[in-house]
Amino acid sequence: MPRKKAAKKSRKAAVKRKLSGKKYARKKFAKKNPRKRTAAAKATNKKSSGAVNQSQVVEPILLQPPRGMKDILPGEQEYWNRIRQVLDKSYMRYGFQRIDTPLVEFTNLFIRSIGEGTDVVDKELYSFTTKGKDRVSLRPELTAGIARAYIQHGMNVLPKPIKLFSVGPVYRYDRPQEGRYREHWQANFDIFGEDDPVLDAQIMQLAYQVLTSLGIKNIQFQVNTIGCADCRDGYVDMLTSYFESKKNKLCRTCKDRLKNNPLRILDCKEDKCVQVATNAPQTVNHLCEGCRNHFKNLLEYLDELEIPYMINPQLVRGLDYYTRTVFEIWTLEDGKKKSLGGGGRYDNLIANIGGEPTPAIGFGLGLERVALEMKKVKAKSYEPPKPKVFIAQLGNLAKKKSLNLFATMEKSSILVAESFGRGSLKSQLRMANKLGVEVTLIIGQKEALDETVIVKNMTTGTQETVPIEKVINVIKKILKIKPVFNGKKN
RNA sequence: GCGGCUAUCGUUCAAUGGUAGGACAUCGGUUUGUGGCACCGAGAAUCUGGGUUCGAUUCCCAGUAGUCGCCCCA
Whose C1' is closest to the CA of A463: which nucleotide? Predict the structure, then answer.
C-alpha cells in the first residue's frame, strides 16, 4: 500500500477511534451518573436556547421525499418523453381537446362522484382544511375534476360528442409498491354526450392503440357490464339475497360489503368468496333490454376491431359512478396480470353532481406502470438528438470567443456541446470523445488573436485552421456528408 | 390498513464483534496546445435512534425507506 494512502487511513481510523471513544465516554458517564448527565444536558440546553432563537433550531433535512413519492430522473425521461409524444399524437388524432384542471378540488366533489364506501374516498384521499376553512382534497383521479369543469363551463352547448384529454399527477394515500405510488401520473380520455356503444369501443381502441404504439405487448381487456340505474337495483337486490343466503361463507370484509356495496363482493380475491361469487347471479343475465343490447353491440364492435378481450363477470371496479360498460387493461406476463389502466361508462355522473343528464365514457392510464412495462419489454424510447460538435478552448481570451461561437452555432441550430469549466485541452477532448461528436472546434490563445478556429474531424483525426466567420460553413459541409453516407447504408 | 423479506461509496458486489475492500462511474495526472487504449492517483458508503458489549457496520429492539404478498387500484 502506498504510504500516502496508508497514512490517510490511519488518520481516518484515529478520527473514528476518537469519536467512538467520546461516544463511549458519554454513554458510560450517563450510565454511571444518570443525574449528573441530566444536569449536564440541561445546562447545555439552557446555553443553546439562550444563545439561539427557538425558531432557529432547525430539524435536519431528511434527504428523501415523503413515502410513496419519487423523482422521475433524467435517465427515465426517454420513456416519459415517448409516452408524452404518443399521447399527444393520439389525443389529437382521435379528436380530443386537452384540458388541465386543478390538483386540488373541494372534497365534496370526490365524495359525491366517486362515492362514499369506496376505498379511494374512505381510505386513500389526501384531505385537508385550508386557512379559509375550505375542505379540499388532492385529486385521486382526473374524471371528477373534468366533469366539474364540463358543467361549470357549459360545455354541454358544444357539438356532441365532447372529447377531453388530460394528463397529470393524482394522489392516493395507499401502501406503496413497485408500480404503485402515492403520487402517480395518469392520462385520461373522456367523451361526453353520446351513449352509443360504438364510443365505448372506440375509446378502448384508443387505449389499445396508445399501448401498442408504446411497444407494450400481451395486452388484454377485461370487459363487463354492470347495468344502468333501472336494472341495477333489481340485480343488486337479487345479488344481496343470494349472498345473504351464503353469508357464513364470506370473509369479514365481504360481510361489511354486503351492507354497503354488495357488487364489490364479486371482486373479492379471498378463496372462499371467489367460490361463492362464481355461482352468483351474473349481471349479463339480469339486465334490462337496453343494457343488454348496449353490451351486445359493444362486443360486436370489439370483435370487428380485433381487440383482445375477455368478459369478466367479476369485474365491477372501485368507483361508484360507473354504469353499463366497465373495463380494465391488463398486460399478461409469466402468468401474472398487471392492470395498466381502466375505465367505463358513467352516464349518471354529470347529472349526479349537478349538470344536465349527459352520458359519458372514459378511461385512465397509469403512466408509471406503462413506463415500467416499457422498460421491461425494452420498448423503443425517445432519444433526444445528440450534439455532433464540441467546442474546446484554452485561455481566457479563447473562452470569451468560444462562448460567442457557441451562441452563433446555436442560432444556426447546430447542436453544440462544450465543457467551458474544464482547463486542459486533453480533458476537453476526452469529453468530446465520450460524447461521440464528429467535429471538435479548438480555440487557443493564438487562434483567438488571429480570429481563426481549428476544426478537427474526430473520425479521421485530421484538422485544419479556418477563419472564424467560415466555421459554420465548414461544419455544415462535414456534417452533411455523413447523413448521405448513412442514408445509402440504410 | 395487515403480513413477510431487505438496507454498505453515485451504481453494483464483497468483508468483518476490533483501521470496511473491489469493479463501474466521477475528477485529476502520465513533460510545453490534441481524444479513444493503457497506466498512475484522488474523492466517495455501513439508513436513523436506542440497547447488549471494553469495543457494533456486524447481535437485539424500535423507527424510516424499499420490496413482495393481501387489500385496493392506475
Answer: B34
- For residue A23, what are the contacts with CB-CB under 8 A and spacing of at least 6? none
Angle between helices A367-376 and A77-93 (to 10 degrees): 120
Shortest-distance nucleotide from A336 CA to C1': B69
Determine which helix (DSSP H) or strand (DSSP E) holds A327, and give its type and residue range. Answer: strand A323-333
Cβ–Cβ < 8 Å for A136, A127:
yes
Residue A30 CA, nucleotide B49 C1', distance (Å): 16
pLDDT-derived band at A48, boundaries 50, 70, 90: very low
Over the range A136-151, which residues count as b (16 or more CB within 10 Å of their CB) and which as e? bbbbbbbbbbbbbbbb
For the segment A372-409, what is each residue's pLDDT rounded down to a tens digit?
Answer: 999 888 788 888 889 999 999 998 899 999 999 999 99
Give the domains, in start order, of chain A with CATH numbers.
Answer: 74-228+288-376 (3.30.930.10), 389-484 (3.40.50.800)
Q: Summarize pLDDT for A266-287 with one digit per residue, the tens.
A: 766 666 677 777 777 777 778 8
Please report, rounded to whole angstroms, the spatial distance between the CA atom of protein residue A58 and the C1' atom of nucleotide B63: 20
Name the amino acid, one letter, at A29: F
A263 versus A131: the higher-pLDDT residue is A131
**Interface predicted TM-score (ipTM) of this complex, two decimals:** 0.87
A113 neighbors A106 (Cβ within 8 angstroms):
no
Whole-angstrom Cα distance, residue A137 to residue A128?
6
Asked if the model's pLDDT at residue A32 lies above 70, the reply is no
> Of A325, A329, A326, A328, whose CA–CA distance to A295 is shortest?
A325
**Protein-proximal positions, strand B, CB < 7 A:** 1-3, 19-21, 26-30, 33-36, 41-43, 51-57, 64-74
